[in-house]
Design a protein that fits this description.
77% of the residues lie in helices and 0% in strands. It contains six helices and no strands.
């Protein structure tokens, strides 16, 4: 099933680019948004990644755009994949979506989960 000639993998890859934008926008708001007067981005970043008690959440938020870029590249790549490789990629996507749902804001979790609608059914169909 394709949408206007676009494969499910291509749609998933483009959806991951949207998730990258959402993750980077969140970092922009955290570092440059309204905060304590006189506080600059460097001290905010250090506070979030080193000093904060919930720093694992911010580390995940830092790694999430990189993971989404890698997934977008994998889905947009023209290289044919074996059915098991597609299934492994779909499993990685599901794991990333579950971790994001557990630790981060709902809007980011949705941005990471939406590509599952295109990627997982395609992987299951090709594995069978």
């Amino acid at each position: 099933m394709t949408l206007a000639g676009w494969s499910p993998e291509r749609l998933a890859g483009l959806a991951y680019i949207a998730a990258v934008v959402a993750g980077l926008a969140t970092w922009y708001l955290l570092l440059f948004g309204p905060g304590l007067p006189g506080e600059h981005a460097g001290s905010s970043l250090r506070g979030l990644l080193v000093d904060d008690a919930q720093r694992h959440v911010f580390w995940w938020l830092a790694l999430l755009p990189l993971a989404c870029i890698a997934l977008a590249r994998a889905y947009l790549s023209p290289v044919p994949r074996a059915p098991r490789a597609r299934a492994a990629l779909a499993a990685a996507v599901v794991a990333m979506a579950l971790l994001t749902r557990r630790w981060l804001y709902a809007s980011l979790a949705i941005a990471v989960t939406v590509p599952l609608a295109a990627s997982v059914p395609g992987a299951i169909r090709r594995l069978a």
